[in-house]
Design goal:
This protein has about 240 residues and is mainly α. The chain has eleven helices and seven strands. It has helices at about 15-20, 25-30, 50-65, 70-80, 85-95, 110-115, 120-130, 150-160, 165-195, 200-235, 240-245, and strands at about 1-5, 10, 40, 45-50, 105, 135, 145-150. Strands 5-7-6 form a three-stranded antiparallel beta sheet. It has a two-stranded antiparallel ribbon with strand order 1-2. A two-stranded antiparallel ribbon has the order 3-4. Helix 3 (about 50-65) runs parallel beside helix 5. The protein starts with a strand and ends with a helix.
Length: about 240
């Protein structure tokens, strides 16, 4: 792995494929179909890929898991702005993942490493377990098994590189769960009142249609609110620990 002039890490095509859990051939195929933007060509004509490429591959994988054909994925990605950031792509992936119920699978340690996109140390697996991303499967042969939510795994692996303690991550998770459940209760009550006079079939149809829209609205609103809070925190020097000393 190398870095750009701005200090951003870059990946070779082999590293990108390994992190995404796909083959190099798949990466090249997506590139020829226009699903992935071209890499930055560096010294010795080596292509360098960034976090946006990895996030786009994760989105493509999520769309495939939802049963979309390659043609449908092409249409979906074709409607997105070409310069979406890593975080914007992650937002779209979260919305896509909300279309289906949570799925938890049993995997071996080797399969866990493959899905994580890199070999995990025992300490990293313990951290993922502390974040409730993976759970050791007591029923697995020889104890070599884990129960994992694929949607959470990629997020958990990314959090391994964040310089926060597991306690901080868990506290943030608790805060998010509490506030999201409160918002979900309020929204559910509003929607329930709005369709109180309709039949059960119409209610289920409306719920299925509204679910991804509501999730996208929540994520977009939260993203903007968090950006504003961080901006105020950075600009308001009097509130930072350094200013208080």
């Amino acid at each position: 792995m190398t870095t750009t002039d701005a200090g951003e890490p870059t990946l070779t095509i082999d590293e990108l494929a390994a992190r995404a859990g796909v083959t190099v051939r798949t990466v090249r195929f997506y590139g020829t179909k226009g699903l992935l933007p071209p890499p930055v060509i560096g010294a010795r004509r080596v292509g360098h890929y960034g976090r946006e490429h990895l996030a786009r591959l994760a989105l493509i994988e999520e769309l495939q898991h939802r049963g979309m054909t390659l043609a449908a994925i092409e249409r979906y990605l074709g409607q997105l702005p070409p310069d979406l950031s890593e975080h914007d792509l992650a937002l779209h992936r979260a919305v896509v993942a909300s279309w289906a119920p949570q799925t938890v699978e049993s995997v071996t340690r080797a399969e866990l490493d493959r899905r994580a996109g890199r070999p995990l140390t025992d300490g990293e697996v313990d951290r993922l377990a502390a974040m409730d991303v993976v759970v050791r499967d007591a029923d697995a042969p020889d104890g070599d098994g884990y129960r994992v939510d694929g949607g959470l795994l990629r997020l958990g692996v990314e959090l391994l590189d964040v310089p926060f303690s597991p306690e901080t991550v868990l506290a943030a998770r608790t805060a998010l769960l509490e506030h999201s459940r409160a918002a979900a209760r309020d929204l559910s009550r509003l929607l329930r009142d709005a369709v109180a006079e309709r039949g059960a079939r119409d209610v289920r149809s409306l719920s299925a249609h509204m679910h991804p829209l509501v999730v996208q609205a929540l994520l977009t609103t939260f993203q903007r609110s968090l950006r504003e809070e961080i901006r105020e925190w950075i600009d308001g020097g009097e509130d930072t620990p350094a200013a208080a000393d």
